[in-house]
């Protein structure tokens, strides 16, 4: 269980994950679950009825589940539940008569809680928990890809997204333009919830890579030494196309002056056009406003719902123009199609909203 925050202390994100997960179960419309919970909180519905619990009922339930100061965190928990209402995970059925505060009656919108694609892990909570969840979650599986430029021999760096213990997604130009170092370094970012990942040594040895012939995507394959773990993974990662309303979280390892090691950076912005065609190749891309620098190439672009909507791509300047380039991304569905064509389709999931 997460560390319980003091009255004035910052609230750990893993505590909020635990509370939200308990709320999803407690306010369920499932009759068997509801009947069992009525016994836990010593409450009864009229025969044949299924009445929503109140927030106050939830505080009593939390205390019995090992959250002894739930009542003192009432305002905090109420805000979290309201964010779950805004995300359409929970439906508010109004105030129960006789309650001044914490009397709102709630039901979980079971069909809206999570899709099959996000059924593992905690990314289904990305919308109500926001940046506090998304940044460490994807930061923990965004890794630096280091090497030497084939053109100049200078040190270069790119970024990649861990797909499973043995594979990393990145750009084709990252692997094609560099002589890669011998291993993929672990991310130094810890995940926001769950057990701490096992990270032996500085990284995992690279054994090969495969780049798409046209789309700027590639997969690096790693293999740990015997008896050693692979790369830590993140459950519930799903890909989808970018959309006009999307916020963007762009992850990567742009070099930072006066540092001797790569550091993960996350920039925020929004989609500014979700689908554009390249006039020379007819390839689809999208543009976004989050600042992107050299070293971000291959890093994931994540939306506010915790789904990957793209991969950072090369910036392209208009010939003869001194204007700044747009920040371009390879759309999520294009990535999935390319990986499927390369034989890596089993490593990625395209969100189908089932």
TrEMBL record:
InterPro entries: Peptidase_S1_PA, Peptidase_S1_PA_chymotrypsin. Gene3D superfamilies: Trypsin-like serine proteases. This is Trypsin. It comes from Mycobacterium parascrofulaceum ATCC BAA-614. Coiled coil: none annotated. SUPFAM superfamilies: Trypsin-like serine proteases (SSF50494). Signal peptide: none annotated. PANTHER family: SERINE ENDOPROTEASE DEGS. Transmembrane segments: none annotated. It comes from the Bacteria.
């Amino acid at each position: 269980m997460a560390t319980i925050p003091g009255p004035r202390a910052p609230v750990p994100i893993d505590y909020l994950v635990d509370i939200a997960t308990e709320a999803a179960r407690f306010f369920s419309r499932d009759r068997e679950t509801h009947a069992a919970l009525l016994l836990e909180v010593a409450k009864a519905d009229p025969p044949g009825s299924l009445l929503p619990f109140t927030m106050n009922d939830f505080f009593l339930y939390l205390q019995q589940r090992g959250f002894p100061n739930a009542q003192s965190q009432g305002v905090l928990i109420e805000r979290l539940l309201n964010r779950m209402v805004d995300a359409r995970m929970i439906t508010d059925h109004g105030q129960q008569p006789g309650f001044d505060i914490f009397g709102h009656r709630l039901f979980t919108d079971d069909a809206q809680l999570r899709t099959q694609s996000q059924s593992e892990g905690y990314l289904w909570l990305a919308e109500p928990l926001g940046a506090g969840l998304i940044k460490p979650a994807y930061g923990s599986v965004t890794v630096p890809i280091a090497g030497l430029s084939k053109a100049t021999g200078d040190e270069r760096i790119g970024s990649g997204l861990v797909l499973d213990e043995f594979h990393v997604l990145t750009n084709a130009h990252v692997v094609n333009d560099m002589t890669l170092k011998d291993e993929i370094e672990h991310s130094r970012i810890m995940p926001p919830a769950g057990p701490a990942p096992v990270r032996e040594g500085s990284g995992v040895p690279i054994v090969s890579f495969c780049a798409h012939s046209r789309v700027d995507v590639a997969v690096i394959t790693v293999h740990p030494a015997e008896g050693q773990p692979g790369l830590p993974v993140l459950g519930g990662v799903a890909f989808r196309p970018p959309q006009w309303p999307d916020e963007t979280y762009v992850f990567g390892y742009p070099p930072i002056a006066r540092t001797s090691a790569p550091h993960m950076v996350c920039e925020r912005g929004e989609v500014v056009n979700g689908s554009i065609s390249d006039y020379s190749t007819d390839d689809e891309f999208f543009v976004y406003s989050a600042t992107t620098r050299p070293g971000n190439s291959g890093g994931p672009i994540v939306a506010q719902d915790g789904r990957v909507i793209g991969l950072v791509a090369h910036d392209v300047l208009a010939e003869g123009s001194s204007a700044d380039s747009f920040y371009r991304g390879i759309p999520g569905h294009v990535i999935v199609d390319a990986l499927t064509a390369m034989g890596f389709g089993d490593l990625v999931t395209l969100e189908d909203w089932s």
